[in-house]
What does this fold into?
Amino acid sequence: MSLAGLGEFGLIARIRQAVSDPADLPLGIGDDCAAALVPAGELLLTTTDLLIEGVHFRRDWTTVRDLGRKSVAVNISDIAAMGGTPRQIFLGVGLPADFPLTEIEGFLDGVLEAAGEYGAALAGGDTCRSPGPLFISVTAQGSVPPQELLTRGGARPGDAIYVSGTLGDSALALRQLQAGTLPQSALARRHHDPQARVTLGRQLAAGHLASAMIDLSDGLLGDLGHILTASGVGARLFPDSLPLSEPLRWVLPELLAQQELALTGGEDYELLFTVPPAQQGGLAALASAGLPLTRIGEIVSEPGLKLLAADGSLLPLPSGSFKHFGSADR
Amino acid sequence: MSLAGLGEFGLIARIRQAVSDPADLPLGIGDDCAAALVPAGELLLTTTDLLIEGVHFRRDWTTVRDLGRKSVAVNISDIAAMGGTPRQIFLGVGLPADFPLTEIEGFLDGVLEAAGEYGAALAGGDTCRSPGPLFISVTAQGSVPPQELLTRGGARPGDAIYVSGTLGDSALALRQLQAGTLPQSALARRHHDPQARVTLGRQLAAGHLASAMIDLSDGLLGDLGHILTASGVGARLFPDSLPLSEPLRWVLPELLAQQELALTGGEDYELLFTVPPAQQGGLAALASAGLPLTRIGEIVSEPGLKLLAADGSLLPLPSGSFKHFGSADR
It folds into this structure.
């Protein structure tokens, strides 16, 4: 049975059955709008992302369950990057007419599973047929107390630059897939099933430990560029300190290739944040809790971005690394 | 110049320049999330809709400016249907690689123009290339005091059924376009540039004049079916009382054809609402204000939907009129 056999209303009915509304969602799926409660005094956070078959994913490289999980995670990652608590997910899906019902169900299972893990409710959506590729649109809502909001614009000279987890794993898996190689399983998970760093984002925000934050979707250099532009500052990065996973170092033994991938590879969905000198003690306590937090550079007043080797010598920026920063700031 | 020439960041920069953030939007376009203030004590309303080229629109039938306007209006219409005040718009666009920059700008002009008319701010979005058709995803947010929220579930036996404006104009224009005929201009406007009935929705909600409400997107019978199902009631409709425009009656002189179109034609984006007996005086005062409000039937306790002629005799339901109601309730 395909979407054409089930019909849009049948699909919505199935989704409704699978979803129970939490207390902060008086009206979920099934009316013209969802109606939600934003905690008193908190800011509403909203982000939207598109995932298009052939651009962001290939159906022969991923399972539909992972695709559902990733569609949620990449949006929740934006909530995490503001220091927010995830609340609601809205899902738009344009389905090719021959898309099998079992695949739709697998995709929805993935969406609901991931939403549940992040404490978010599927609160509405729209489904229709697509005359082209599979088209997914996710909007995520969250909330944050105003005094805890972490933007891209708060980095100041003297702040340390930190990143969570390891870098380049997702991009390496993608590169292997593109080359026709089966990625090592840990790398493939990083690409197909990324984790939004919600707990870390909340800890940094609630503890007032960070001055600016962004999630890594376009690649470290590009996303750091967004912080530098928004904050009106520059940065020095130390490539030798970039956190690299064991599987990445095993697949890619050459140090320069490792560093280039860590600097430019996209879809890490780790948090990149800046920490004022006075807060670095608080951060050390946090870093011992599991997810590694690595100091990779520092904010300076002089605009622009420099890569520095361990001996202090200047390294060249990887070519074609990040169009945005390259064209706008240099 | 196309999207490929401009680049995604160039497009976002252009949108940012065109947008100034209102007071209830401390953080608009340009960070990981938008951050908005929901008025204290009010519920957050959210709705999302997809518009896919070849399914919901054809680029040779509409201007990109109208397409931008309609993308906003059909979402705001859902906010209106809950009695809400529009607040923010989030826009996702998957653009074919050869889509010209001037067309993108025209589309954005339409989005911003319509958002402005409804008092909503463009607060975020996502743009990327589409390997298939033009793909548009809009999420609209609004707010409403909880005691004024109008759902589909409040209709009670004895309530009168009302509709705003005239019915079938948009569907007639679409039918003419499909037949290769140029629609009369007033009909074409109803199809390409529908108006969300925000003011009426707010008046009905704030005055506690309606018991249930929905906006007409799938056609009168289908959308009334949603109210009946959600409210656990039935209805009698009087086809002779359906509000029809002059242009529709001119193009379609036969009464049965007029009524069938008014009952089943989609995309009217008028408000369909039920009015308790005690509120019909208040409604009469409202109806004199401009937009016609027409009583077209009544809610009954017996489930199902009956069409009654002026002499009280039963009329047949149009065939294939509305799959949802047909399969679920009869």
Remarks:
- The CA atoms of residues 291 and 297 of chain B lie 19 Å apart.
- Residues 3-146 of chain B form a domain with the 60s Ribosomal Protein L30; Chain: A; fold (CATH 3.30.1330.10).
- The mean pLDDT of chain B is 91.
